[in-house]
Amino acid sequence: MTTHAPIAIHDDDVLEQAIVDHRSLGRRLLAPMLVALGAAGTCALVYAVDPNEPGHYPLCPTRALFGIDCPGCGLMRGTHDLLHGNVAGAIDHNVLLIAAVPLVVVLWGRWLNRARTGIRPEVTRRQFRLRHRILIISLIAMLAFGVVRNFVPYLGSGTSGP
């Protein structure tokens, strides 16, 4: 029976090599631009049609079935307020919206830049761990917010009923 020396694991080990996308620039930019177009269209609809008026949009399933606010409750009303320049109203409907909007814009910008250059950079073990920690912490924070907002009055979605 042969024994092997243990393999040293380092934080700077490359887990995924850099990848070059050989598709045309137009093809690489198609998905991020379609997402931007869809987001702009959705924002235009939410800007024009007030979600505070009943009957225009479907009810949140969690709110309708259980009578509680999910972490996303109030996002549409908050987006409507934010698009109309009412930051306080947006925070009142869902405080996570203020953190989510800049994060989504930055992530979309990184996606757009990666599509423009056609290069997906290498991923080291340290980056891989960091990404997963951020994902897990974000999910735990959203879950905790979803629970806490139903017990702390000023964190609610700003509605009195389904």
From TrEMBL:
Keywords: Membrane, Transmembrane, Transmembrane helix. The keyword Transmembrane applies. The chain crosses the membrane at residues 29-49, 95-113, 134-152. InterPro entries: DUF2752. The keyword Membrane applies. This is Unannotated protein. The lineage of its organism: unclassified sequences, metagenomes, ecological metagenomes.
